[in-house]
Amino acid sequence: MRFSDLIVALELISRHDADEALERQARTGRKFGEVLVELGMLSAHQVHELEDGLPAPPDSVLELGIEPRIVFDIMVKFLSTAGQGNAATIAETLAISRRLASVLIEQARAQGIVELKPGIVAGELRIELTPRGRSMAVEAFANNAYIGPLPVSLKEYSARVLRQTIRGETVTAHAVLQAMQPLVVNEELLAKVGIAANAGRSILLYGAPGNGKTSIAERMVKVFGAMVLIPHCFEVGGQIVKVYDPSVHKRLGTRMEATMASSLLADEFDPRWIPCRRPFVAAGGELSLDMLDLKFEETARFYEAPLHVKAMNGVLLIDDFGRQLVRPEAMLNRWVVPMDRRIDFLKLHTGQSFQIPFDQLLVFSTNLSPRDLMDPAFLRRLPYKINVQGPSPEEFASLLRSNAAEHGVAYTNEAVAYTVQQVMGHGTPLAYYQATEIPQQIADFCQFLNRPPIADETTIRFALGNLLVS
What we know:
Layout: H1 3-9, H2 15-28, H3 32-38, H4 44-52, H5 68-82, H6 87-94, H7 98-110, E1 114-121, E2 124-129, H8 131-143, E3 152-153, H9 154-163, H10 173-179, H11 187-199, E4 203-206, H12 213-220, E5 227-231, E6 233-236, E7 239-242, E8 273-277, E9 280-283, E10 295-296, E11 303-304, H13 307-310, E12 315-318, H14 328-341, E13 343-347, E14 353-357, E15 361-366, H15 370-373, H16 376-381, E16 384-387, H17 393-406, H18 413-425, H19 432-449, H20 457-467
Parallel strand pairs: 3-6, 4-15, 4-16, 7-11, 9-12, 12-15
Antiparallel strand pairs: 1-2, 5-8, 6-7, 10-11, 13-14
């Protein structure tokens, strides 16, 4: 991905402005960042901050920071599967620059691994494996079947995690208010959520069901605006661990083919890293302890990163805590070291253990009593315990009217008072979800019977009969 595409994806400049700057860059041969400053599109400080935070594209095998054997193994596996290739296809598959792809091809030719064949593929010379290269591919597949972007080193990955720590951002009250939309959250709760997110420390959300604990947690990641770089995978002990997951990581922009001379200038960064928004990962009752370990693919012989590694530099929600199949104490014990020391230990199937940073906002959400779930020692490790309470009668009435208007349901003040009286008279506490669900059910009822959408005793009783348990 080009630097110009990235700043457009970050909405710092428009696509039109980026194209104008690229045209001037092509004419002058100057760095893209310098052109942006010259045109007044960004300040020198903004450009420096962006460029300084992006890893430069490696120009040599040494600069990749991983064992050369891993690099050539992945390249010969690709060529073995594809049958042939060229510098462009190798660069795209291995997530490297064409310049480095050409270096790899020359080194592979010198070692007798590949050879040039007659014919042109996409404007470039065709490359195929030699008998020695095919033998090397067989050995490489025996080690693992991974074909894709080259990994970064564990050291480089750990350094990047610490560099883009979630504690490095300042969360503002306005950002929290915007992130929580369209939820109805009172000022006291907004302040508690904002302070906890700003601290970047573990949080416990508790309270009766139906009042938005999960919704609040899901929106917490939106209070953080900074981009993070996620590697396709990292290497440790000669093993490959996949990190990037399209279902979790929201990529900024799209990978675009360079169409101008700017692609040959200082406009790119290491494509092994993907610019993403801070991730959000949620796990509920299905969460088990083995989901927090590396997952070894027996057939492919490489690893999938566990949930909390995919949530690195973002938010990890343990939802419905206390309802997992594993005992709450066992689940809590798994988090003691990461929460206290902000590091975690993972183990390869070879028995080798390694250390990795633990940098994320860890949120537990439960509608059970915290005192029944955890002992005082663990409660102490959760510095922010936020009780998400139900609405007052006034807040409930306001939200009920608002939702009724959205569904086109006529809801008089008398009907609102009757609804509140019926819910509280049933012995059920008022909850935010009720104010959302009741108008919806009234609208469904009236549509089915082809009658005017009006909240009266009949329609309200129908809705409450579905919501409240006798």
